[in-house]
Design brief:
heterodimer, A: mainly alpha, two-stranded antiparallel ribbon, two-stranded antiparallel sheet, 74% helix, B: ABC transporter involved in vitamin B12 uptake, BtuC
Chain lengths: 330, 315
C-alpha cells in the first residue's frame, strides 16, 4: 500500500527529475566557483549577484505563471524598459511615488495583453509581440530615445543600491517577499489551482465552471507588474531609465522558467524551481565573467547571446526527454 | 458592400485606401523614384513573408527569420573578401551566394527538426536561433560593420531588369514557383493538410514530419536570400541591424495577406499584398514626418487588427 504521509526522498527525486537536477547543478556550480575563484564567495560578489539578478527573478516569476496557463509573454523586456523610464521621471518624488507608479505602468501593459488575449481572442504570442513593439515605441517616445538620469537627491536610488538592515539588498528582499506571496497563491488558493488547470486543458477548465478568464487576466497583469518592478530595479540600481534595455529579457525569463522544470505546454510549474532556474542562468554568466577575469577565456558580449540560446537548447532537449519518458511510463 | 466581402477583400481595400491617401497628401508620391524605393524595400519583406506563410500554413511560426538574415548577410562579405575570394573572384562570388544559403537551410533544418521530431513548440524552438543566430553573426564579424565594393554582388540589390529593381523580379519569380508548389505538388497538398488537421494528416499516412521540416527549410532559405539582398543594397553588412524585427514584418505581412495562424491556408500572393501594405504604411508614416518610434506602435496596431479580423473570419 502507498503511504502518502511519509516523505520518500527517492520517490520525490524520481518524480521531479528536472527540479532536483537544477538544484544539484546550482550547488555544484557554487562549490566550483568558491573553490576556483578567490572573491566568488565574498560578500560583495554575492550581494551584487543577487541584486543584479533580482530583476530577472521578478520577470521569471511573472513569466512562470503565464507559461503555466499555456501562454507566453514576449513583452516583458520592453515593458521593463518603459517602466524604467517612468520610474526615472518619478524619481524626484521618491520611492513612495516611483514604486506604485512603475508597477502601475507595468500592470497597464499587462492589462493591454489581457484585453487582446481574452476579449479579442488573439493568440498570446502575437498579442504580446504587439505589446512588445508598442512598449518599445512608447519608451522611445517618452524618453526622446535617450537615457533618463534619475534624481540622486531623493531616496530613489536607495532601493537598487543599498541593503536592508545592512545585510540583504532591498531588491532581493522584495523579490523574496513576492516569491513567498506567489507560492501561497499557487499552492493554497483556488486561483492558483485554476491557473494550473487552464494549462492542463482550457476547455475542460471552462466546462468545469472554473473562472478561466479571471485567472488568465491575473497572470498577464502579474507578468506586467513584475516587468514594472524589474524596470524600477533597473532605474534605481543603475541610476537611469533606459529605453533601449530589455532586449532578450523575455528569452532569459522563458529559459529560467523552462530550466526550472515548468512545462512549456502549461499545467505544471513551481515557484522555487523557477527561482532556481533564474539563479542557475545568472550563475553561468557570473562564472563566465570570473573566467574572463582570470584570462583563461576571452568572450565578447556577443557570445552571451549565443550561450543563452545554446543553454535554452540544452534545457529543451532535456525536457523533451523527460516528457517522453513520462508519457511512455503512463 | 457587406461585412463579409469587406473582410475577404480587406487587404485590397486597405491597399487602395493607402494609395489614395498618399496620392492626395504625400508630396512626390506619384514618381518613379518612389516606386523604385518601395519595390526594393518590399522585395525583402515579401520574400521572407512568403516563407513565413508556408510555416504558418503548417500551424507554426518562425521567429528566427531576422537572425538568419543577419547570419547569411554577415557571411557573404567574409567569403568574397577573404584571401580565397579575392584571388578567385568568380569562385569567391559563387561561394558567397552558396555557403550563406546552405547555412540558412541548416538553420531551417534545425528549427524543423526541433519542432517535428522533438515536438518543441514552434515559438520556443525558433526562439533559440532568434537570439543566438544574431549572436553568431556578430561573433563572426566581431560586431563590426563590413563595407565593400563589389558591383557583381551588389547587382542583387541595385541591379535593374526592364527598368525595375532586380529583387522585385526575384520576389515575383519566387512567388510563382511557390504558388505552383502549393497548388500543384503533393508537398503543397500535405502542407495544407498538416495545418488543417495534423492528426488526420498523419493517420492518412502523410509525410507530416518531412513536410513540416520542408516548410522551415524553405522559410530559412528565403530569409537567407533576403539577408543577402539587404547587404547588397547597402554595400555593407551590419549584423546588429540586418533583418532586425523582420519576423514582425513577415508575420504581419503573412497575416494581412490572409494566412490563418491556426494553419491550413497558404496565400502566397496574399503575402506579397501584405508586404506591400506593410511597406506602404511604413513609407507613408515616414514621408509624412512621423517618427520611427511611433511607426513601431502603428505596426503593432496593424498586427493586432489583422489577426483580429482573421480570427473573426474563422469564427
Amino acid at each position: 500500500m502507498l503511504d502518502d504521509n511519509t516523505f520518500d526522498l527517492r520517490k520525490y527525486i524520481r518524480g521531479n527529475t528536472q527540479t532536483t537536477a537544477v538544484w544539484l547543478v546550482l550547488v555544484l556550480l557554487i562549490v566550483f566557483g568558491v573553490m576556483r575563484y578567490d572573491n566568488f564567495g565574498g560578500a560583495y560578489n554575492i550581494a551584487s549577484f543577487l541584486n543584479y539578478n533580482a530583476m530577472f527573478i521578478a520577470i521569471s516569476l511573472g513569466m512562470c505563471f503565464v507559461i503555466m496557463t499555456g501562454g507566453i509573454d514576449l513583452s516583458v523586456g520592453s515593458v521593463a524598459a518603459f517602466t524604467s523610464v517612468i520610474a526615472a521621471y518619478l524619481s524626484p518624488y521618491g520611492l513612495a511615488v516611483a514604486i506604485p507608479g512603475a508597477i502601475a505602468a507595468g500592470v497597464a501593459f499587462g492589462a493591454l495583453n489581457a484585453f487582446f488575449i481574452i476579449a479579442m481572442r488573439i493568440p498570446p504570442f502575437i498579442a504580446t509581440l504587439a505589446t512588445m513593439l508598442g512598449a518599445k515605441g512608447g519608451a522611445l517616445v517618452i524618453s526622446g530615445a535617450e537615457t533618463i538620469g534619475v534624481d540622486w537627491g531623493s531616496n530613489f536610488t536607495k532601493l537598487g543600491m543599498e541593503k536592508a538592515f545592512g545585510t540583504v539588498p532591498w531588491t532581493i528582499l522584495i523579490v523574496a517577499l513576492l516569491a513567498v506571496a506567489l507560492w501561497i497563491v499557487l499552492e493554497k488558493t483556488s486561483l492558483g489551482r485554476t491557473v494550473l488547470a487552464i494549462g492542463g486543458s482550457e476547455d475542460a477548465s471552462t466546462l468545469m465552471g472554473l473562472k478561466v478568464n479571471r485567472a488568465k487576466a491575473f497572470v498577464y497583469l502579474l507578468s506586467g507588474g513584475c516587468a514594472g518592478l524589474a524596470g524600477l530595479f533597473l532605474a534605481s540600481g543603475f541610476g537611469a531609465g533606459q529605453p533601449l534595455e530589455g532586449i532578450g529579457w523575455e528569452l532569459s525569463a522563458i529559459a529560467a522558467v523552462v530550466v526550472g522544470g515548468t512545462l512549456l505546454t502549461g499545467g505544471l510549474g513551481s515557484v522555487p524551481a523557477t527561482i532556481a532556474g533564474a539563479l542557475l542562468l545568472g550563475l553561468v554568466f557570473n562564472i563566465l565573467n570570473f573566467e574572463n577575469g582570470r584570462g583563461t577565456i576571452s568572450l565578447s558580449a556577443y557570445w552571451q547571446m549565443v550561450i543563452r540560446g545554446g543553454f535554452l537548447f540544452v534545457v529543451i532537449l532535456f525536457q523533451t526527454r523527460i516528457t517522453a519518458e513520462k508519457s511512455n511510463a503512463s | 458592400m457587406n461585412a463579409q466581402t469587406l473582410r475577404q477583400n480587406g487587404g485590397v481595400v486597405a491597399l487602395i485606401a493607402i494609395l489614395l491617401f498618399n496620392a492626395a497628401f504625400t508630396p512626390n508620391f506619384l514618381q518613379l523614384q518612389t516606386l523604385f524605393v518601395n519595390i526594393s524595400q518590399v522585395a525583402t519583406i515579401a520574400i521572407v513573408a512568403m516563407g513565413m506563410t508556408l510555416v504558418i500554413a503548417t500551424g507554426g511560426i518562425d521567429l528566427s527569420v531576422g537572425a538568419i538574415m543577419a547570419l547569411s548577410g554577415a557571411m557573404a562579405p567574409l567569403i568574397f573578401q577573404s584571401e580565397f575570394g579575392t584571388a578567385y573572384p568568380a569562385l569567391g562570388l559563387t561561394a558567397a551566394f552558396v555557403f550563406p544559403l546552405i547555412v540558412a537551410c541548416m538553420c531551417g533544418l534545425f528549427n524543423g527538426a526541433l519542432i517535428s521530431v522533438l515536438r518543441v513548440q514552434p515559438i520556443i524552438a525558433t526562439l533559440i536561433l532568434f537570439i543566438s543566430g544574431r549572436g553568431i553573426a556578430q561573433v563572426l564579424t566581431n560586431g563590426n560593420l563590413q563595407t565593400f565594393k563589389n558591383p557583381a554582388f551588389s547587382y542583387l540589390g541595385t541591379g535593374k531588369v526592364l527598368g525595375l529593381p532586380f529583387q522585385g523580379w526575384l520576389a515575383l519569380a519566387i512567388a510563382v514557383v511557390l504558388f505552383w508548389v502549393v497548388k500543384r505538388t503533393s508537398f503543397g497538398r500535405y502542407l495544407l493538410a498538416v495545418g488543417g488537421n495534423e492528426k488526420a494528416a498523419q493517420l492518412s499516412g502523410g509525410p507530416v514530419k518531412t513536410v513540416k521540416i520542408g516548410a522551415y527549410v524553405i522559410c530559412a532559405f528565403l530569409s537567407g536570400i533576403a539577408g543577402l539582398i539587404v547587404v547588397a543594397i547597402n554595400s555593407a553588412s551590419d549584423a546588429a541591424r540586418n533583418g532586425n524585427l523582420m519576423e514582425l514584418d513577415a508575420i504581419a505581412a503573412a497575416v494581412v495577406g490572409g494566412a490563418l495562424l491556426q494553419g491550413g491556408r497558404a496565400p502566397i500572393f496574399g503575402a506579397i499584398l501584405g508586404a506591400i501594405i506593410i511597406q506602404l504604411v511604413k513609407y507613408t508614416l515616414l514621408a509624412n514626418g512621423v517618427e520611427d518610434e511611433v511607426a513601431l506602435i502603428a505596426k503593432a496596431f496593424i498586427i493586432v487588427l489583422a489577426v483580429y479580423v482573421q480570427q473573426a473570419r474563422k469564427e
